[in-house]
Putative oxidoreductase
Amino acid sequence: MSKTERGIALVTGASSGIGLATARALRRDGYRVFGTSRKAMAGTLDGISMLVCDVTDDRSVQRAVDDIMVHAGRIDLLVNNAGMGLLGGAEESSAAQAKALFDVNLFGALRVTNAVLPMMRRQRKGRIINMSSILGLIPAPFNALYASTKHAIEGYSESLDHEVRTQGIRIVLVEPGVTRTSFEANIVHPDRPLREYDMARADAEKLMREVVEAGDAPELVAGIVVKAANATSPKRRYTAGKAAAQVRFLRRFLPESFVDRSLRKFSRLPV
């Protein structure tokens, strides 16, 4: 495989935002890229071969992976990017709504990973990049359930990496900060809202709109994915953006009481 032919990449949730920017960046870097979306799109998008895949459906995932094997014969890189958000007080969501969120953000990544691991093992080569978030490292008022899915993907990814490393496969995390996408416009709201949270929830939604508007470009995150994909000895985690790096530093090295006060101040909650 030549330097300009990196291999075969699969990017889930590639119809817009970080997923689309990542698929484009990987293609420019020399990968043959297959992207997925829940709804049918044109056969190709900017040179990316688009497939229909619902990451909450085992058969849909397997069909997409089988299609790639028919057309390309292998998968060298998987980017688990498909995901959704949920904004509201933790107790405002039913267990069913919480399960639906985990089904996309955590178990969706698990399904696609399980589908590609056997072929990567046969190849004795493969890399899986799981899209986490800086909210996988810190508390997130009014994003408690979303943050929980990202905390879970962190633990899953790090543990899996130890299990498959001797098979020539590496699992890597990319942790974006706030990114300028349509994420907040498509965010899910609680299915059992409580009036006790109305004002705080509205404030949290306003804050999200403000920080997203000033956030990093999705292309910045895509560039970090390419770096993580091509690293000879990949790091376990790659933060994407200055704010994400600062938050990671705060969480790792500063006293918990300081982080707590800083978080409440940023979230515009009484300190």
The CA atoms of residues 158 and 171 lie 7 Å apart. The mean pLDDT is 93. Strands lie at 7-11, 31-37, 44-45, 48-52, 77-80, 126-131, 169-176, 237-240.
